[in-house]
Design brief:
The complex is a heterodimer. By secondary structure, chain A is of the alpha+beta class. Helices cover 37% and strands 10% of the residues of chain A. Chain A starts with a helix and ends with a helix. Among the domains of chain B are: 163 residues, Rossmann fold, CATH 3.40.50.11540; 70 residues, no CATH class. In chain B, 46% of the residues are buried. Classes of the chains: A alpha+beta, B alpha/beta.
Chain lengths: 302, 445
């Protein structure tokens, strides 16, 4: 075929274009096959089981990260998704064909009860309203330098609306909390810890390592290190860390004996949820103690 | 002259208010109850050597240092230890406090005798045993400062007699009274540390001090171990800040997060060198401090010689009391001083002034919006951009803080002083520096 014949024809560019496209198409197909990244089809399927909130609670960069780890066998623990909870753990175990591990639902707990009624202000803070900033200025304006500052750095990072500030300290809404652990990293005072979710969780809600006299001066509800709870505990779940009682949540049987003997009401029992439902634990404790006294006096009378 | 002052002097001119200038030091004694904290300085502090009921004498060692950065604590009175307690300090730290009930006799401890000094090690040990820290205001332990890390050669000793803060005149008075001791101290430091040059920087609002220092340098001209020169600086705040002073006197720039030793310089306050001479002569530890007491609420102001550990409440009472209700008590100068939250707070080793302000002076002006006039950048002696740093700190943007070199800030407060909108610039930058430190700590983990 004489190419000149086609010169000026309307089909020339169409034919040339078509030929180039065909060649390129074949090239792309070959390259695509040659350099294809082999992906495990299970990754997408596992990802579909996961809740897809990308909270990072499992310790991976997101849901896809955890899915990849599970699919590749790098991680065999199917209970790491805190947002999905027990159902997701069981579903993952069934899919992967592994034995479903023991899933312990956890919840964030703020280790401080020093509300404005219980603590004083050392100075007037006029800086940026962030905990990290206030902590940098002589450990914050509160009389207790271990306590919650109440500016809500934890509230700002929480994606599940599970934290709120009430009366100057942070509280956890236990129904919303998925134990992703973002607030744990955000708190400059390291007050938030994950504890097993139990209706009657018994926690020494204080982080104050000062000796008793200094604590008493600065906070009326702090742990003064009297060690009465340590002596009372029937299962030896409590130990002293530099004049602060620490209850091991894995050993605790929630019997509530320590709550009864704590002189400052620093140990609190029971979870609470939602703003406005703050349980004043000291009132309950006082009532319980009054009842106990009545019982004793009644026995004596008998 | 080898050294030349840089032509670029940047800073502010606050009203000097040096009404106490020329007032001789008045020795104040007779405090019944003294509180001596065991961590007066940078570092881990001390452990108590005495317990409740022990008898102590003047200059007796009551705290044993816990690390290389700590210096021992000494009793400044003779009497009985009534309490060894833990309490919270203004800084938010909990420290051991030793409370001593004075017996009024002021019996000297027998162990005080001139130390035997024959080389650098024994010289530094003598300084450390006397409990000496930087008396200029930062309380950096002197024995650490004079012992630079290996590989760093110190060729210049800079003596800070600038005293650029308004109202304070304690260093001025010290140079007039004890110029010969300052020069003796310089000779000792230059001799044991093998430093060939020394520059004394004094602001030109202290002509008597300059004359006295010049006279003292000339009088012992032939005995000097180093070439000492007295340099007159223009009166400008903050000439006395370490990094600024080094730039004016030696034209060297201390790197960000660096120490003066990185550029071959050691900076000592005039009070510190004068005290070094005293230690070597008498062996008496640091138990007294020259302090300027001034302020709008004071009935009488002046320069005083106070024992360390005396409660501020008693001091104010003893030196004439207040004439109007007190709004705020500031420890340190009006530009950089820290207000205290408790009048029972003791005088510390680095306290160079107590300012008792009335209620009007103590009010903090209300902040308004930035008008982008650029005055803060113009007056920053470290040539930073305070308004940008301030905004980055408010947003807690550590990356941006790093980019704008927040750690170069010396917290002098010039930006806040000149700001027409009364923005809390230096306050937020100080918080920004802490955010930077917190971020660095987290990274290191």
């Amino acid at each position: 075929m004489n190419i000149l014949l086609l010169t000026g024809s309307v089909f020339t560019p169409a034919i040339i274009g078509g030929a180039v496209a065909l060649v390129m198409g074949i090239a792309i197909f070959i390259i695509f096959k040659l350099f294809a990244v082999k992906t495990d089809p299970r990754v997408d399927e596992i990802n579909a089981i996961l809740p897809g909130v990308n909270c990072g609670g499992c310790g991976y960069s997101g849901c896809i990260g955890y899915a990849e780890a599970l699919a590749s066998g790098a991680d065999v623990d199917s209970t790491k998704c805190t947002a999905g909870g027990e159902d997701t753990a069981a579903e993952l175990a069934a899919y992967l064909g592994v034995e479903a591990g023991l899933y312990i639902p956890k919840v964030a707990h703020v280790y401080c009860q020093g509300t404005q009624d219980h603590t004083k202000k050392r100075y007037e803070y006029t800086g940026t309203l962030h905990c990290a900033s206030a902590h940098g200025l002589y450990s914050g304006p509160n009389s207790c330098t271990y306590g919650c500052l109440g500016f809500g750095d934890c509230v700002n990072v929480c994606e599940f609306n599970a934290l709120y500030i009430e009366n100057g300290i942070a509280h956890v809404n236990h129904e919303n909390c998925t134990a992703c652990g973002k607030c744990v990293d955000a708190c400059p005072k390291h007050l938030i810890h994950m504890i097993p979710k139990h209706e009657a969780a018994t926690v020494c809600t204080c982080s104050n390592h000062w000796p008793g006299a200094v604590t008493r001066k600065n906070c009326s509800i702090g742990c003064i290190g009297c060690t009465r709870c340590v002596k009372t505990c029937p299962v030896d779940a409590i130990h002293m860390d530099d004049s602060l009682a620490v209850i091991d949540q894995m050993i605790c049987i929630h019997c509530g004996e320590c709550v009864k003997v704590c002189p400052t009401f620093a140990i609190r029992q029971g979870l609470l949820s939602g703003p406005g439902t703050t349980v004043d634990n000291s009132v309950i404790q006082k009532a319980a103690r009054a009842k106990e006294k009545e019982k004793v006096s009644a026995k004596v009378a008998e | 002259m080898f050294f030349r002052k840089t032509s670029r002097a940047i800073g502010v001119h606050p009203r000097q208010n040096k009404s106490t200038q020329g007032m001789a030091f008045v020795r104040v004694d007779g405090f019944s109850r003294l509180t001596i904290p065991l961590n007066l300085q940078v570092g881990p502090g001390c452990s108590a050597l005495v317990k409740k009921g022990d008898e102590v004498k003047v200059g007796q060692r009551i705290g044993e240092p816990l690390g290389h950065w700590s210096v021992p604590a000494h009793s400044s009175v003779s009497g009985t230890v009534t309490e060894v307690k833990k309490d919270i300090l203004s800084s938010g730290d909990v420290a051991d406090l030793i409370v001593i009930q004075s017996d009024g006799k002021q019996t000297l401890d027998e162990s005080i005798k001139p130390p035997v000094v024959n080389d650098k090690e024994s010289f530094l040990a003598a300084i450390r045993n006397a409990g000496l820290v930087g008396l200029g205001g930062a309380a950096f332990p002197t024995h650490v400062k004079l012992d630079p890390p290996e590989g760093k050669v110190i060729d210049t000793l800079v003596i800070n007699g600038a005293e650029c803060e308004p109202r304070i005149t304690a260093d001025d008075q010290l140079m007039r009274d004890r110029a010969d001791r300052v020069v003796a101290g310089i000779n000792l430091v230059c001799h044991y540390l093998d430093i060939p040059r020394c520059v004394i920087g004094i602001e030109d609002n202290k002509p008597e001090a300059i004359a006295a220092m010049q006279k003292a340098v000339d009088a012992t001209g032939s005995e000097h171990k180093a070439a000492i020169s007295v340099v007159t600086l223009k009166t400008l705040y903050p000439t006395g800040a370490e990094k600024v002073l080094i730039r004016y006197l030696t034209d060297r720039i201390v790197p960000e997060n660096g120490l003066p030793a990185d550029v071959g310089v050691v900076v000592l306050n005039v009070g510190t060198v004068a005290f070094i001479a005293d230690i070597i002569d008498t062996g008496m530890p640091l138990i007294r401090k020259f302090v300027t007491i001034d302020g709008s609420a004071m009935a009488k102001s002046g320069n005083y010689d106070l024992p360390i550990g005396a409660p501020i409440e008693d001091i104010i009472e003893k030196v004439g009391g207040t004439k109007v209700p007190v709004g705020k008590i500031v420890m340190g100068g009006p530009m950089m001083g820290v207000s205290i939250d408790d009048t029972l707070h003791p005088v510390l080793k680095h306290t160079n002034s107590l300012l008792v302000a009335n209620e009007k002076d103590a009010t903090i002006p209300k902040e308004s919006n930035c008008i982008h006039c650029g005055r803060c950048s113009k007056h920053c002696p470290m040539q930073l951009m305070p308004t940008d740093l301030d905004m980055a700190a408010r947003r807690e943007n550590v990356e941006e803080l790093r980019e704008y070199h927040v750690m170069n800030c010396i917290e002098c407060g010039c930006c806040t002083f000149v700001c027409p909108a009364k923005r809390y610039l230096v306050q937020n930058i100080r918080i920004g520096k802490n955010l930077w430190r917190q971020a660095k700590k987290k990274e290191a983990k």
